[in-house]
Specification:
The complex is a heterodimer.
Chain A (H helix, E strand, L loop, with lengths): L12 H6 L14 E7 L5 E8 L9 E4 L23 E2 L5 E7 L2 H7 L3 E7 L6 H5 L11 E9 L2 H7 L2 E9 L11 E6 L5 E5 L4 H12 L6 E5 L12 H16 L3 E4 L2 H7 L6 E9 L5 E13 L5 H11 L8 E10 L13 H19 L3 H8 L19 H11 L2 H13 L5 E13 L6 H5 L2 E6 L5 E4 L9 H13 L6 E3 L18 H23 L7 H11 L5 E6 L8 E2 L4 E2 L5 E13 L5 E11 L6 H20 L5 E2 L2 E2 L17 E7 L16 H4 L1 H13 L10 H11 L1
Parallel strand pairs in A: 1-12, 10-11, 14-15, 18-19, 24-27
Antiparallel strand pairs in A: 1-5, 2-4, 2-6, 3-5, 7-15, 8-13, 9-10, 9-12, 13-14, 16-23, 17-18, 17-20, 21-22, 23-24, 25-26
Helix pairs in contact in A: 5-6, 8-9, 9-19, 14-15, 17-19
Chain B lengths: L1 E5 L2 E5 L7 H8 L18 E4 L2 E4 L12 E3 L12 H9 L8 H13 L6 H7 L11 H10 L9 E2 L1
Parallel strand pairs in B: 1-5
Antiparallel strand pairs in B: 1-2, 3-4, 3-5
Helix pairs in contact in B: 2-5
Classes of the chains: A alpha+beta, B alpha+beta.
Bound molecules: FE2/S2 (inorganic) cluster (2 copies).
Amino acid sequence: MPAVGQDKLRKEGPKKLTGAALYVDDIPVKGAWHGVTVRSTVPHARIKDIRFLKGFPWKQAVVVTAADIPGINCVRLIEDDQPLLADAITRHVHEPVALIAHPDRSAAYESLKFVEIEYEALPAALTIEESLRKKAILRGSDNVFKQFRIKKGDAAKAMKKAWKTVDTVFRVPHQEQAYIEPQGMVSWFEKDGTLVLLGSLQCPYYIVKAMQPIFGLPEEKIRVVQAVTGGGFGGKEEYPNMIAGHAALLARKAKRPIKMIYDRHEDMAVTTKRHPAVVRHRAGIDRKGKLVALDIDVVMDAGAYLTLSPVVLSRGVLHASGPYTCADVDIRARCVATNTPPNGAYRGFGAPQTLFAAELQWENLSEASKIDSLTLRERNLVKIGSELSTGQILKESVGLKKCLEVVVKRSAYAKRRKEHALWNKKKTAPTWRGIGLAAVHHGSGFTGNGEVFLKSRASLSLTKRGRFRIEAAASEIGQGSMSTLSQIVADALGVPYEWIDLEVNDTRRVPDSGPTVASRTCMVVGGLLHAAARDLKAAILAKTKKFPKTETELQAAAKALAAKGPLRFTRRFEKNTDIEFDDKTYRGDAYGSYGYAALAVDLEVDRTTYEVSVKKVWTAQDIGKAINPKIVEGQIMGGTLQALGWALLEKPVYKNGAMINNQLTNYIIPTAMDAPAMDVVLVEEPYSRGPFGAKGVGEMPMDIPAPAVCAAIRQATGLLFPEIPVTPESIAEALRRKK
Amino acid sequence: MIRFTVNAKTRTFSGPPFKRLIDVLREDFGLTGTKEGCSEGECGACSVLIDGKPVNSCLIPVCQINGAKIETVESLGVPEKLHPLQDSFLREGGTQCGICTPGMLMSAVAYLRAGGDASPEAIREQLAGNLCRCTGYQQIVDSVARALGTKPKTGSKAK
Ligand code: FES
Ligand code: FES
């Protein structure tokens, strides 16, 4: 029986369910000291002096400052602009300035009270607006880290000719990933000088690359191992580079293992968040409701250093026009520097920001044209043969229309809309009701030529003991990659799922199969493994007349085939010759394939307290092929709830450039009581290059709920909120202003 | 000296009386199944049972549990032989990254023993003190319902 398409049980499930799975803080490390971080308390300043005050037994501790860095003081990512430890200047609150290790965890924390930093304040730009006004200059002459433009046709001219036009400024805030396991890393040096890092992370090879300049070590002398990781959502993509560097610096100086585990407050205050964005969105339609002009300006707040912001911005730009066709498009986008902790990867990676504007704008267009927003969408949806803003023609696998039909039908959208309108007219009703829709696309895998540059590799082995073993740096972070990849391999080989093992995610044992990001693991790494499995199968068949049917037969075959070591096949990503993208002009095939989704939210707003309660969510998502439907549904529902949180509850409060509600007690994420029942339908429009037709899954659910929520709130209250989160306070305030 | 039982085994502790129960379990007894997500009673990852009731072990000084009966996730099953509740979680997708899972299981096990009802609303209420960022909770609710002998009605249909 095939494994693909079945709800196979999660490979690592039993260990996680019994407490046997070891997360970084669970791993006993003999002789380890605890590392803590001294951080700056001002947004922008010259560091005049760092003083270690009397009153703490400093002799028992090890202290590291920038002066202790043997190589280059940087956190290497796209650029080297971010220091590992601030030296002369600090550019944001919470920037690491020094490190302390002590045998006792609480003493290590205690020591922080005995460090004093003397500053000379510099002017600071704390918001997008202040950055654009050049209140402080952090980058170049204008604070712009990166800009993109997508131009097709003549948007200005088309806008003039349009029947109805709208012009709205949308704003979305930071969002904290809020994985339940805070970040952590353990580090030590082996006798032969090898630097070892073991931690909670998504991208082991990022860390290998980041450690090289700091320690001047060659790649072979750096070993990174992923511990069981308690959620990531992008938050453990690049930030672990920082903790790894810190733990390793302390380990080097203390000459012993160092354990650095952030507590919740530190994690929330200092690690990367979703980029806040301001999107000015102008759109024009003709009398038939056809979208004829789009003029979009996007600004994202990158924080004090570049980190991954250009890539986040790029994905934002490429999704800004939504899953619709429009002949005349002009999109300009910038990410700017502010004196705040750098923002970074978070599920959706720039797309939720721009799609929020693109989708919610239909409500304004609907108001202007008196055509309902569902009809407007239907008239403009992409289908096979449609052209996107980059000029990309969609050649296959476009299930958007089907998704929208399914959601409209299952949610009884039209009927509910009518019923709610009647209900809302009743003077005595305790609530207002609303239902709202949204539709999105999400590019699977890396943008443009990203996969080509990456040249990721993955291997499949037959071991001497007669087991098939996947060797890939694909990090299981809860998304089910171990199971999904095993199912792909099992079917490609034609063997039971139970015969497949996974090598530990350890850079010494697995090849660089690229980072665990961008909804790419199943599609790209799965694709490589699928090909490797065919190679391996052919090699086995070449030696044995019949492919082994039982484990005993397999063991016998393995004895002959893998006597001198595992029989291994490795595949490397190869460029698809008919997919072309120009990084300079942003023309061409931005992604090989896109996922598509539609979603409806039904909610109620209490007329007295303005509390919003989401009653139900219906969604249909075209993901090509559900390798493991249960896991895919889990991804969709989990992502949906994170996005509902972003839309309604999660409000990071920044003061003087730092998040001040850095606790789960006042940064509210949804509980089981806040979570609505969800009706999920999987639409499968196969992608010819994905394993068994699979496209990306992980991020799309994050893109879609927020605009649907705001559309529903509009029906309920008559108010369109172009800014999230929509809290009871913001509803009260808007109603007061309306009066 | 403080004396209590952990997973039916008698234990004593003579360290600082205000050491948090979670640290005693993890550091002194090596029971790392109990997780720490927030250290302030908000996430429930550290939930254990004290005399049968789910409690956040990050808020409990060990001196408060003299004579008490503590149960942690390690008391349920082992990977090779899961407790029926753990098996339900495995089958219904109740665990993803797994960091909330031990706490979730302890809250759920107390609910099962109390003969909790299988309606999704009641299960959600019971689990409201346990945060999960991965699942959206529905498959966790389904897992508990399954353990209560109800076939979950939710779940999807491929098209
Ligand atoms: S760690 Fe105890 S409630 Fe979060
Ligand atoms: S499974 Fe990851 S937090 Fe619940």
